[in-house]
Structures are given as structure tokens and as C-alpha cells.
Amino acid sequence: MNDDSRRIVFLGTHGQRNIGDELLLETFLTQLGDQHHYIVNSYDPDFTRSQLQGRFDVDVIDTARDRRRLLRELLRCDLLCFGGGSIIKELYASTGRNAYSTMLMILAIVTFTRRIARRPIAMLNVGVGPIRSPRGLRIARMILSQVDELTVRDALSVATCRSVGIEPRLATDAVFSADAEWLLGANDPRRPASGGSDGADGSDESTTRSSTPASPRTPVRVALNLNYDIENADNWEPFLSQLGLVLERVHAAHPLELHALPMQKGFKQHDDVEVLEGFAARVPSLRFIPHDLAAHLDAARVIESCDLLISERLHAIVIASIIGRPSFVLAYDVKVRELATTLELTPWSVDINEPFDVTAVSDRIIGVIDQRVVLGAQVAQRSAELREDARANFARARQWVARTRRRSRPAGAVARTEPDE
Can you give the pLDDT at residue 5? Predict the structure, then answer.
């Protein structure tokens, strides 16, 4: 290692075939710098090694099976970093898991790193909340009080931290540091220029279906993403029924061509692929084109090929905004609602946790279609402003990493690595 390099344990929700999470990983390693040696966790180590191969100095450990190795790496590292994602939160009932399971796991890791390994800890651009119970708030405080460098990505996270006596810094979502060329893989040797799927635009045209003759009018190409994990699970089926009615009504005014944008494939029940395929059966009058997406490059290229995005997933909306495509936001939780506010898309969003007026939402989507060129330019401009903020945040993070001293120590000894004052 040179004097500028550090041995960094970098933890997140990697290897779950979630394009947003994998995009965060690539963004952080790119922005923190390729001079460091990273130890990255993954639920699918082979997938993550393949994703990062040849571009970063990385060891990948199995999140579920290599817990002893993780402890050894925490004893050897210069610092521990959590990068992005909603990591300190109570899980929704729709996940089928204990509400506190993620927070308790993070508490154990942070406490070991702080008290046993005595290493500095950074949580950068993370989401904190929603946390509604007193127990959840106590766990959150136990975690956050041990963190040396804390930045959060939204106002709710700031408020939640302050409610437990922690003062964070507000930072822009990390992915806004990227530009359109990087997202589209203009200089990435891993991806062919035509995209990584069966069709030239990323689609498998052999499975394209339409039960009605093609309209003589040019259809509006809509990238559609759906995510099962909403706050109010009881409203999921009513929401899908209402969305189907909305799109059929829009289709009567503007012929639509739906392009599936599954941001997660596999790993969990009711992944985006399954949900989108089920939704397609609800709207047989609309042409539905599936896409097999392997990475953010594929998602970005599908979005670029479309006129607008209708999406729940936060990072699909971020990608679309950077590329200059307008979004109609299906706000399924607080972080997506806040993103709509940040991008000035609140008039073009709807809370899907409650019933909504089909006619009103249809009319608003028609408004996006009619104004798509202007709205696309507006979100691109707003994203450019956020890019400056995100890059400034990363500059500060790099300075913090550089101030951590690398200390030699006798074999078997444990010494805390402190940031320089």
C-alpha cells in the first residue's frame, strides 16, 4: 500500500441483484478512489467479484457465511464504512422479517468495531428511518452514537437522528455524483454499445406481446418499475388495480408502449420481475416489452430509450433525472416522497399507500407526456445542481479518509486508528 491508500471494510446490501444497491457500491468505490484496498460484503460473492473485477482492489466476503472473517477484517482494517442505502430503519411488514433484524445486526458490527477493533466508523449518505417504536429509536441511538463520520441523505433522516440526540450532516444521494455518460457506460469496456440484452434496445423482442393492432400514432414509450415492498401492504392489490385503470385511460389519449424496468431480479419473493409480469396481465390492451437488466448500465439505456419513467424505485428516478427523462413518481415510502420534493416532481407524484383518484392521476400522467421535453430539461438541470453538492460531499469524505492514520502494531495487538485532528 502507498501512503494514500487505506484498507477499508465497506459494508452495504450488495449481491442481492438490486440494481440500485449495486450502483451505490460502484459509485462509492469510484468516488472514494481506486488507490484503496476494499473488503466488500456480498450475499453473492461471485456476482460482486465479477461486477468489480479489474477496476478496484477488492476482496469480497460472504455476508451470510463469512462472519468470522468479517470480524478478522475489522481487526485488520484502517476504517469501517457503510455507504448509502436505508440501513437504519424498521423493516416493513411486507418483508416478512423481524422489524429490528437489520438494525440489530448493524449494532453488533458497529459495537465490535468501536469497542474491540477500535477503528473509526463512517456512515455516508445513509437513510435513517422510518423508525416508529421506542425500541427502534433506542437501537438507532446506540448505533449512531458510535459513528465518527455521519452524513444522511434526506430531511427525515436528519429529524430522526436529532430525535435521538445525534446531529448529522445532510448530504445529497450519492448517485447524483454521476453524470449521464458514466451511467450509460460510454467508456466502460464491459458493455457493448448496443446494450447487454437480447434486443438492440435491451429488450427480448421475441417475447413482446400485444393483443391489439398497432396504433397508427407513434406510441409513447414508458419505462415502468414496480416494487412490492410498500409501507402499507394492505393497499398493494388496490394500488395495482388503480394503476391499471390509470394506464388504460392514458392509453386512450396517448397510445402507450410499456417497457419493464425490473430493478431487482431474484433474491427475494415478489421481486420486480414477478411483479411487472403480473401487472402486464392486468393491462392486456397495452403493449408490454420485458427487459432483462443485469446492471445499472442496462437500466440507464432502457430509460434513455423511453420518453418517461413511471417508478417506485428511488434510484431508477435518480438515473432518469440525470439522463434527462421526466418521471411520474409512485411514492411508496418517505425517501421516495422526499426525492420527488428534491427534484421538484411533487406535482407529478402520487402516494400509493392510500387509494387515489384514477382520473386525477391519469390527467397528471398525460400532463407529463405533453410536457415531457420541458420537464426532462428541468430535471436534468436540477440533477446538475445536485451533482455539485454530491461531489462536494465526496470531497469531504475523501479528506476524512485521508486523515485516518495507518498505524503499525505488534501481531495480536489491537489499537484504535483515529482520524488526525
Answer: 94
